Amino acid sequence: MKLEVKIPSVGESVTQGIISSWLKAEGELVQEGGDLLELETDKANVTVPAPATGVVSITVKAGTEVSIGQVVGFIDSDARASVTSAAASKPASTAPAAAARAPAPAPAPASTPAPAAPPLAAAPAAPRTPAPPPTAAPRTPAPAAPAPTTAVKPPAPRPAVVLPPAVPGSPPTRTPMTSLRKRIAQRLLDAQHSTASLSTFNEVNMKNITDLRSRYREEFERIHGVRLGFTSFFVKAACRALAEFPMVNARIDGEDVVYFHTFDIGVAVSTDRGLVVPVVRGADRLSIAQLEAVIADLAARARDRKVLPDELAGGSFSITNGGVFGSLLSTPLLNYPQSAILGMHAIQKRPVVEETAGETIVIRPMMYVALSYDHRLIDGKEAVSFLRRVKELVEDPWRLLIEV
Asked: Of 18, 237, 107, 25, which is closest to residue 248 (Cα–Cα)?
């Protein structure tokens, strides 16, 4: 039976992509769930898994622009048996004179897990002839299994554009814009034209969180197996603030307002091919340790292009951290069609006035935060109040624990 290979959905509002590479060749055997092709979109670069086990038939070549849901190939599951049996019979036909010794190579793969060499390389295993044939016979199909190993290696990164050395007085260099960059540019323009985007800013005193991290970092990592960062605290604070200001967790759909009653938070991850925003589902129900583990897992798989399409869709609010690159202040772009996004920035020691015992100027680790929002739906007062609530919760993280 032939199963269609379709381009899956890789995020809301994404309608097209580019097949950057096929990870299996025409006529090659693929296992169900194995890496089949790599897809580039303006939101994500993902590896698409095979829908079934069988032989690959490619109908759309790499480098072609495709639409979500488009059929780009087939998996012939009926051909699986014939391919396997043909591969299994190969060793017997390559050495007719050594028919009696044919079962002998079977034990060799068991001790050498990845024998990429041809069956002739197993000839030195002749001293194993006395081995009982019945135990070797069931293993004879095993040599066919290494066939898919050619696609196990991750896809090679696309080479960067190499510009000639700059020569004083030389004319400017002109290179065509890639299809991917064209779509990114168009989507950003569409998002700007479709929303009334506005930003509000505040600053957060990070002393309590940095002290907490310094005190418990080693013990936290030893117990939970993940590092204690800052993003999980902001995710927790955002969930609490979204519950208090539900309009920030909503969006416009035509002439309706859609309110979300779950807190699925997109966390932006920088990869070698651009920004990816995987979604942490039910973030409000996760502990700090669970959030750190989920975020670390999603980030690692996003960078390895292993994040699943479903993990990039359905978010109601997003957080991005430009501070990892040293950004002190910026206005994050809306992750359309979401209505708001929170921007974190670099922590910098600055003099601030504290009124604990009179007005005292002290040095504190400070972070500017920004909230970009769709002013068609969210009023300025609501946006400012939301951001102030996030600030309050992050500055006093114990509030997150006792829920006040």
From this structure: 237
